[in-house]
Structures are given as C-alpha cells and as structure tokens.
Amino acid sequence: MRNIVYIHQQALQPTNRLLSIPLLFYWNEHLMKVQKNDKVTISYIGKLENGTIFQTATESDPLPVTVGNLDIPPTLEQALIGMSAGEQKLVRLEPDEGYGPRRKDLLQTLKRNTISDQMSPQVGMILSLKVEKDGQEHHVPATVVEVGNDTVVVDYNHPLAGHNLIYDITLISIEKVTQ
Q1: Residue 63 in contact with residue 43, Cβ under 8 Å?
Q2: What are the pLDDT digits (tens) for 46-96?
Q3: Backbone phi, then psi, for 63, in 5-degree steps?
Q4: Cα separation of 143 and 148, whole Å?
C-alpha cells in the first residue's frame, strides 16, 4: 500500500521571488515500523524444536493483533516492535510462556476397567474423561501414556506443555492507531 504525500518547498529564484516547488514523497508501508497500540496482521508457522508443525496462520487467513493488548505471548509481541511489513523473524518461546511446564501431578493411573469395555486404549490415544471440579462434572482430554494389564496411565497436561515453541512470523500489515 502506498500513500502519496505532497510537500511544498519554497525556493528563492535569482530574482528573490519565492517559488513553491512540489516535492513528491512515497510513504511506503515498508518504511513504517510497528509500535505499541498498532494493529497488525501476521502469518506464522509454529513448530517444536524437532520441526513438527503444531499451528499455522497463513497470509490468506492471518492473525490480527493489537500490539500491547497481550493478544499473543509477550515475547512474540515484543518481537513485532520495530518490524516493517514483509519482515520475517524467528522467535523462541520457553515453556512458561507457551503451554507451561509438564506437571507430574497431572498424570493419573486408572484401573483399566474404568475405561469403556468397548475400547482398547493405546499409547498416544486421546480420551475424553469425566473429572469433577468444584462440584461440577467436566469432560477433559487426556493422553494415554502407558497401558498395563490392569492399569492405564493418562496425562492431563496440554500436549505442548514442557516444549519450547518456535514461531516463524511474517508481518503482513501495519495499521497505525491515532490516539
């Protein structure tokens, strides 16, 4: 996107008459830098350190972000500051800023007969289990991590918990917000 700005500069002629000379400047979006409160759109690829892609936002379906609203993790937001449209950055998030550390207290050993008789649990399978919290029953996803003869160990941690997350972000556009 290009905006054209006309600025008139006054110049003295040899006859001491003032002339107004229009100067044409192209204010290119690529020259603008992201600042706090700007509305931006980004595309990104979220990967684990082993290269496994866990999430994407494409240029045709980008993520809108208002810088400073903490719509995204602070490290990603800080990486946007000073970027220009079209610029790309690689940003690494520690587990604490992503999905948290893996918590051992979120592993639970269940008796195999508490799981449906019609199901044969396999490692990696995600089950929807009923959990009671504050007197209310909730369905919570749990990943099967171990299967024994009489027991099944499930993990209630988010699958990305404990992982460093790598984001390859591209700034698509910047909208300056005047206050």
Answers
A1: yes
A2: 999 999 999 999 999 999 999 999 999 999 999 999 999 999 999 999 999
A3: -100, 120
A4: 15
The full set of domains in the chain, from first to last, is 2-99+162-175 (3.10.50.40), 104-155 (2.40.10.330)
Give the alpha-carbon dihedral of 123, 124, 127, 131, to 10 degrees.
80
pTM for this prediction: 0.73
Query: How far from each other are the two terminal CA atoms of the chain, in whole angstroms?
Result: 22
Reported as a single tens digit per residue, the pLDDT across 96-105 is: 999 999 999 9
For 113-145, write each residue's pLDDT tens digit. Answer: 888 777 889 999 999 888 888 899 989 999 999
Q: How far apart are CA 145 and CA 123, in angstroms?
A: 5
Retrieve residue 73's tokens. Answer: 């993790």
